[in-house]
Design a protein that fits this description.
Layout: E1 2-4, E2 7-8, E3 14-17, E4 23-27, E5 34-42, E6 46-56, H1 82-99, H2 106-109, E7 125-133, E8 136-142, E9 149-151, H3 169-183, E10 190-195, E11 202-209, H4 215-222, E12 229-236, E13 243-252, E14 256-260, E15 263-267, H5 277-291, E16 298-302, H6 310-316, E17 319-324, H7 327-339, E18 345-349, E19 363-366, H8 375-382, E20 388-393, H9 396-409, E21 412-420, E22 430-437
Parallel strand pairs: 4-6, 11-12, 16-17, 16-19, 17-18, 19-20
Antiparallel strand pairs: 1-5, 2-3, 3-4, 5-6, 7-8, 7-10, 8-9, 10-11, 12-13, 14-15, 20-22, 21-22
Helix pairs in contact: 1-9, 3-4, 8-9
Amino acid sequence: MRLTIERMTYGPDAIAHTQEGKTVFVSGAIAGDVVEAELVSDGKSFSKARATAVLEPSPARVGCDWPLASVLGCAPWAAMAYDAQLEAKRANVVDALARVGHLADAEQLVRPCEAPGSPWHYRNKAELAFVRDGRRATLGMHALDGTSVIKVEDFPLLDTPAKGPASRIVKNVSGALGYLAGSHDLDIERVGIRRSSRTGDVEVAIWTPTGAFPRTQACRVLESVGATSIVRVMTKGPAKARKVAGVERLAGAGSWSERIAGNVMRLSAPSFFQVNTAGAEKLVDLVLDALDPHENDIAMDLYSGAGTFTLPLARYTSFVDAVESYGPAVRDLRRNLEEARLDNVDAVGGDADREFPDDEADIIVVDPPRAGLAENVVRQLSDQPARAIAYVSCDPATLARDLARFREIGTYEVKSVTPVDLFPQTFHVETVTRLYRR
């Protein structure tokens, strides 16, 4: 088929239409391209195709120096100019608010997409998959089609210097554990590398099932990679619902630290932290700007994690109720508060619905997982007397659903939605929504 690509989706594919008007999701193309495409599947309402040749390149198409960008799932938009990526991300947020949330004023609500840092070398985290074929092991990253793991030695999305040992951290960790796997029957699920250019910390986290593990040998082969912390994260349970059974310090500090928004946060390997530190700082700035905290305010932070928003709010307000359901993150939050000498926070472990604070808040921030807010949490938030809510979201569709629920209840009005590009070269986008009491 010859197809003219119209726009990008919230996903790695682009959208085109056949001459008959049927929607086609096309992989390997960007908006503005004219491509020759091969049909992959043909459904009743839409088809899927793969671009086999670019007949007329889009004005937004650019070259990429990283040869693996076109085949790995971590950089599906690398062929698109960065300003076009920002415009496409804003368009996807507008589309979700209008289509899912039925917000007629979506175009007016959504601001231009913020670009807080470099479009390359922005990540503080690399994650390697581990596959074994007999005695041979490969550490790498998942291919775009999800069917294979490709060996990766250079990862230009990771925040590393141009030269020196730190520039080869992915290659060195991959080589060390690949070598160890040749002499030991390693059962590794994945390997996480965290690196902070602000604190100098480097952590290697080896995720494995519970059971025997060659601890001494693992430390020995990894000693040359420059890690300040080497840990083993032990998991148990079925493959689709693995749970952390414990974290074992193999060498070094047993955690890594990051400096953000004037605070130093220490984090254990299982705890969530945004992969883009500069982007996380922009989120903090937008949240504080939306909430305008006062020294006598009572603040609420739901889905608080290890304290990205809790710590700055505690410095500006009289008291913060923080709720987080994930045990390792709650422990990290309490440690971060103690090290920051902040004693005006009640850090509660549990689900936001069941552990919803009794205090009446003046300002609120929510940063839920991709599933968004439970319907009852929207109702509980709407019953609060708070003058402002900042909603941080990583999924435009669930954000749109939740904003529609807020509007239906009517206590809070959506004032603006600001996309923030924490994930250049991908379709993912973070947003900060301002809701003010009517």
